[in-house]
Amino acid sequence: MIETARGALYTGITTNVERRFAEHRAGRGAKALRGRGPLTLVHHELVGSHGQALRLEAELKRLSAPRKRAWLTQRGVQARQ
C-alpha cells in the first residue's frame, strides 16, 4: 500500500515490490499516483497465490480511507491521518 503526499492510500499487487515502487516513484506506475508524490510505501505483505492477492486487493480497494487505515493499524502500521 502506498501513501501519497496528501494522504491518499493506493493498493496494488506485484511480484516485486521494490521494482514496482520505483516505477511508481518515477511516474511510470499507475496513473492514479502520477504527480501525487512524494510517495511512501506504508505496507506490503506476502500473500499465498496470485488469486489470493487479487482478492485481497479487491477487498482493500472497496474500503473507505478510514477503514483502510484501521486495517493498517491492525497490522501494526501507522500511516498519516
Automatic annotation (TrEMBL):
Family the UniProt entry places it in: Belongs to the UPF0213 family.
Name of this protein: GIY-YIG nuclease family protein
Natural source organism: Billgrantia pellis
InterPro entries from the UniProt entry: GIY-YIG_endonuc, GIY-YIG_endonuc_sf, UPF0213_domain
Segments traversing the membrane: none
Residues of the GIY-YIG domain: 1-70
Highest classification ranks of the organism: Bacteria, Pseudomonadati, Pseudomonadota, Gammaproteobacteria, Oceanospirillales
PANTHER family according to UniProt: UPF0213 PROTEIN YHBQ
